[in-house]
Every structure is written in C-alpha cells, then in structure tokens.
Amino acid sequence: MRRKKQIRILDFKDVGITEDLPYLRSREAISSKVERIARRIVIDVKKDGNKALFDYTLKLDSVQLTNDTLKISDKEIREAYLKVPKKQISAINFAKRRIEKFEQSITKNAKPQSIQEKGVTINQRIIPIEQVGCYVPGGDAVYVSSLLMTVLPAKVAGVNRIVVTSPPSKNGTISSLLIVAADICGVDEFYKIGGAQAIAALAYGTESLRPVDKIVGPGNIYVTAAKLIVSSVVRIDLPAGPSELLILADESANANFVARDLISQAEHRHDSIAGLVTDSPNLIRKVSKLLNGYLRQLNRGEIVSDSLFTNGFIVLCRDRDQMVKFANIFAAEHLEIITNNPKNIMNEITSAGLILLGPYSPSAATDYCVGTNHVLPTGRFARASSGLSSLDFVKQVNVVECSKLGLNNLRKHISVLALSEGFTNHSSAVEERFRDDSK
Fold first, then answer.
1. Are 327 and 288 in contact (CB under 8 A)?
2. Is 334 noted as a catalytic residue in this protein?
3. CB 270: neighbour CB atoms within 10 A?
4. Average confidence (pLDDT) over 280-301
5. Angle between the 195-204 and 32-48 helix axes, to the nearest 10 degrees?
6. Same structural domain for residues 345 and 258?
7. Can you give the residue range of the structural domain that contains 426?
C-alpha cells in the first residue's frame, strides 16, 4: 500500500536553527552550467544584436522573429483590446489606481533635504532614472501582476522611457491581456523576447532596441544569471529566487485559511516555499488533514503538491518566542501573522519582505491589488533589503555650494585630513583659493 504524502512536520528543537537552514530552504543556486549558458547568450547578443536574439528565440522558444515582429505594434495593441473582457480591463484599472496611490505616497514622503550652515549650502535633488527595462515572465501563466508591479512604480517615479520584454508563446504572440495591461500602464516599448537574451538586449542594446539604465523584474534561473552577468554595466534589482510564504499562527488561527494560503503560495511554481510555524499541535493536525483533502480537487494540483511535499514544512514551537525567533532567522518574502494579537508580534519582527496582519490579509491579495508591491526580497535578502518601490527608480543627487567664507571655515580640517592620507594636492586645491593673488 502506497504511503500517503504529507507536508514535513518538524519540531523547533530538532530544526537546528542556523544561518543556512539548508533543509528548509530550496534555494535556486546558479550552477556553473547555467552561468556558462547565460554568459554565452549574453556575449552573443552583445556581439550580434538582433541576429542572436532571433536565433536564440527560435532555438529556445520555437518562435521565428523578424525585425518587423520583434516589437508589439500599434495594430496588435488595438486588436488586443478587442479580445480582453471588460471585467479584466476594469480589474487592471482598479489595481493600477491602488498601486499608484501607494507609490505616490512613498515619493511624496521622500522629500529632498536641504541644510545651510556658515556659508555652506547642501541641497538634495531627486532625479528619475532616464530609462528602465521591466522583465515579465512567461511560461504557463500570464503574469499581468508582475507587469503592474514593475512598470507602475517606475511610472510614478517619472521614468522617461519604460521598456517591457516578455517571452512569446509558441505561436509567436504575447497574451492580449498582457498587451492591454502594458498599454494601460503607459509602457513605451514592448518586445517579444524572454530569457537571458532579453536581459542582454536590455543591457547592451541591439539594432532594434536601445539599452536601458536599470533592469527589474523576476524570471527563471537563466534570467537571474544574465542579470547578475550584466550588472557590471547596468543596474539591476535583487536577484529573485523561489517565492516564499511563512505563516506564523497560534491556536486561534482558522485552519482553513492557513491551508488555503499555503496552497496559494505553492501554486506559483514547483520550487515555491510555503511554511507554517506554530505553537499549536491542534492547528498542525487540522492543517495537515485539510491540505490532503484539498489537494485531491485542485487546479494546478501537480504543481501545488510537488511544491508542498518537496519544499513545504510545518515547525512546531514551544512558545511565541521560538516562533518569532524562527520567523526572524528565516526572513521570509511574505510573513503572515495570524494570532490573537498580531500587532504585538509585528513589533518583534526584524526580517521580512512583507508583513501581513490578521486572518483577512492573505498574501494572495497583495499579489494583485492591495497596493503594495509584490516584487520582494527572497532567499533571506529580507534581512537587509526592501521590496521594489518608486524609490528604486530615482537617484538622490546632492548639490553643494560653498561661499569663500564657508570654504575657509572648512579649510584647516580639509588640509589636516588630506595630508594625513598623503593627498597633498587635495590640500593645495583648497589653499589655492586663499592665496593673495587669487580672485
């Protein structure tokens, strides 16, 4: 008789909390083989431009592109609107308004700073990045939400040129829904290319695509490898690993809510990570039973079960302190807190990409239209990094103006520090301004 599969259940005392958590974290490490393949693609696109783009798109996506079909045309945009139901267009506009409203609040609070003291004035300017590339994954799903979450913060920040790339389907087209979303969000250029070749084109440019100054957006392991390779010439966001959800819950949590949230996380991809940390054996029993019941009747059931049984876990803790300790070391991309007093626990959380409080704040909602961004740090980068926002699309530039009196007030200290470092010419550059014959 075949043994029924179960999500892993571990005891906190046996987990062996370490900085690596090797058997709880399914990290998508970039192998030397993947890095080698991605680097070859990047080099070829840099060298051969469109020809390499078309060759790799044919080889990897089975689509023959040409100079005329590489970019989404105005005709394709008009035709896309005829194929997308009004309720989907309405939902895109609704999500757009909420995301824009939150991003605008971020930029509004990021006010340029200014100080003036004894003849020295320092003003800060916040300047948008000139041109940005947004990578939107393809494959077995249409990631409209990824387009919204990468394009809209750039738009709110005032980026002048926003380019989107996404892999075409086998028939050489891009989803009408994705095209419409791009148009609604104000995308300037949309190209039918994916994978490492798209990242290389965004970084170095081709005959048909001018390079950008920053590349953002999630993708597969080859996309991630390519982003790291081109990061010496163009800025990138954090490399995205498998998506993560950790639920911190006590006896009061609704087991159905917990089970459904674990499943919703697991349906992203086979390597998604979904975990529950709790001090309630009763909740563990209920959730385990529900998971097995739900899995028999799910859409995307194979992906969900593969993800849950390979990467999923439940950790039983002795008390709340152990739960918080585990959450902080795990540093999940999404952290749901479903307890009697979630706000009290929130104040003890030091590492999480996004914190969701209470039973009616599921991570699934934030993937779409709550207003917060779902491009978040994974792989424990939440220990030191934040999610994507409009601030990632601006530069802070300081403007300094010294009067002669102001520079004179600093002069002695500049000279001492410059000479201590052996930079006599730094000192001379300042002293020259105070020679008797200096104008």
1. no
2. yes
3. 15
4. 89
5. 50
6. yes
7. 403-434
Q: pTM value? A: 0.90
Q: Among 236, 262, 287, give the residue marking a domain's end.
A: 236
d(CA 138, CA 122): 46
Kindly name the residue from 268, 333, 336, 374 that is annotated as catalytic.
Answer: 333
pLDDT at 243 over 60: yes
Structure tokens at 92: 């895109």
Structural domain ending residue among the three candidates 215, 236, 257:
236
| Active site annotation includes 333 | yes
Question: Residue 172's CB: how many other CB atoms inside 10 A?
Answer: 14
Kind and range of the H or E element at 98? helix 86-109
In a domain, 398, yes or no: no
Residue 349 has pLDDT above 60, yes or no: yes
Write the CB contacts of 148 (distance below 8 Å, at least 6 apart in sequence): 92, 95, 96, 99, 181, 185
Query: Cα 431 to the chain's mean position, in Å?
Result: 48
- Taking the CA of residue 199 as centre, how many other CA atoms within 13 Å lie in the half-sphere pointing to its CB? 33
Q: Which amino acid is at 366?
A: T
Q: How many angstroms separate the CA atoms of 258 and 281, rounded?
A: 14
Residues 89 and 162 placed together within one structural domain of the fold: yes
In terms of domains, do 191 and 308 share one?
Answer: no
CB neighbours of 430 closer than 8 A, spacing ≥ 6? 407, 410, 411, 414, 415, 418
Mark residue 16 as left, alpha or beta (left: phi above 0; alpha: psi -120 to 50; beta: remaining): left
- The CATH number linked to 261 is 3.40.50.1980
SS3 24: coil
Q: Taking all residues of the chain, what is their mean pLDDT, rounded to a whole number?
A: 91
Catalytic annotation, pick one of 100, 244, 334, 374? 334
DSSP lists the bridge partners of residue 81 as none
Give tens-digit pLDDT for 84-127: 999 999 999 999 999 999 999 998 888 888 999 999 999 999 99
Give residue 108's pLDDT.
86
C-alpha span between 310 and 7 (Å, rounded): 8
The end-to-end CA distance of the chain, in Å, is 96
